[in-house]
């Protein structure tokens, strides 16, 4: 290897042609869509995917200060257990992602924020699911609460940035999007020391 840094990788190939799509299963929350695809080399395949609402979701890293941030502990039905992570939720119709982020903060931790910095938009299991989540850092917090749709109050946990890496050792901090948000937020804070001024 030459050690030469690669700043970009080759462009993606042309997308396969969707010849047919149909809904094959549906519940209150999920729709399963079957796709008949033809790839550029002539290969034909049938894929299934969960069809998203198209609204997207947000996750927020609420920073109390340059030293501390807030997490929440809430019930996760998929694993039938309690998980620690960052406040999150769906974007309501007519909301911008920033408005949804502020609403979710008020509902889940009793704070709003005056500033939001977008970190990245991520997808979850893109081979099977089209949902996207916008990840933000929230700064300049102020107290304000809204009633949310959670079945029980969420436990707020304050954590120090100087101890952020130890979150990875916690048995109940496992959600990939929260782990990604932690790394993205830490990178942003490290690269912009005047963020909290």
UniProtKB/TrEMBL annotation:
InterPro entries: Nudix_hydrolase, NUDIX_hydrolase-like_dom_sf, NUDIX_hydrolase_CS, NUDIX_hydrolase_dom. Its cofactor is Mg(2+). Residues 50-184 form the Nudix hydrolase domain. One of its GO terms (molecular function) is ADP-sugar diphosphatase activity. PROSITE patterns: NUDIX, NUDIX_BOX. GO terms for cellular component: cytosol. The gene is nudE. Belongs to the Nudix hydrolase family. It holds the Pfam family NUDIX. It comes from Psychrosphaera haliotis. Keywords: Hydrolase. One of its GO terms (biological process) is ribose phosphate metabolic process. This is ADP compounds hydrolase NudE. NCBIfam families: PRK11762.1.
């Amino acid at each position: 290897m030459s050690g030469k840094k690669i700043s970009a990788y080759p462009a993606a190939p042309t997308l396969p042609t969707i010849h047919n799509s149909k809904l094959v299963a549906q519940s209150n929350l999920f729709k399963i869509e079957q796709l008949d695809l033809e790839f550029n080399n002539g290969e034909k395949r049938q894929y299934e995917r969960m069809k998203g609402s198209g609204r997207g979701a947000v996750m927020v890293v609420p920073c109390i200060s340059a030293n501390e941030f807030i997490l929440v502990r809430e019930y996760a039905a998929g694993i039938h257990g309690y998980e620690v992570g960052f406040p999150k939720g769906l974007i309501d119709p007519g909301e911008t992602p920033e408005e949804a982020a502020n609403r979710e903060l008020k509902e889940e931790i009793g704070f709003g924020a005056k500033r939001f910095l977008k970190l990245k938009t991520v997808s979850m299991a893109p081979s099977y699911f089209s949902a996207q989540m916008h990840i933000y850092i929230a700064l300049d917090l102020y107290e304000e609460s809204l009633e949310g749709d959670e079945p029980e109050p969420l436990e707020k946990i304050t954590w120090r940035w100087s101890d952020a890496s130890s979150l990875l050792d916690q048995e109940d901090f496992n959600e990939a999007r929260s782990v990604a948000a932690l790394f993205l937020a830490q990178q942003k804070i490290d690269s912009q020391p005047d963020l909290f001024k």
